[in-house]
Fold this protein.
Amino acid sequence: MNILVLNGPNLNLLGTREPEIYGRATLDDLARDVQAAFPDVTFAFFQSNHEGELVERLHQAHRDEVDGIVFNPAAYTHTSVALRDAVSAITPPVIEVHMSNVYAREAMRHVSYIAPVAAGKIVGFGMRGYHLAVRYLVDAAQEAAQ
Ligand code: DQA
């Protein structure tokens, strides 16, 4: 099983960025912990601060026929028609993840351009949200194979 874990802008700063909101763990910690939790899954991890690079990576995942994508589009969640169209254009299921509870924050974060075209969405559970999203993708793939 192949899963892409895709992270958007400013998430490269996890560990030092607003730790009271996002905690102290880094993206490297996330990659290590997710891989350790799902040793049988082949993961690709990618982060970019650039909208177009995220679009390209979604297209690449489609060409690679990955089984699922765990995507934290970060601030682009609330602004990007291009990322929404990319998610809508590709076949692999995309799970939208936000570490913080965006609904307990500013009103601008309550809007998601991605949610209507995502398979589902997990918010507010910190880095555990990525694990929950992978769990769903693995379980759904196993059910589909039965
Ligand atoms: C975030 C929430 C977004 O509103 C914000 O712009 C981020 C991170 C989260 O994981 O909680 O950069 O996606």
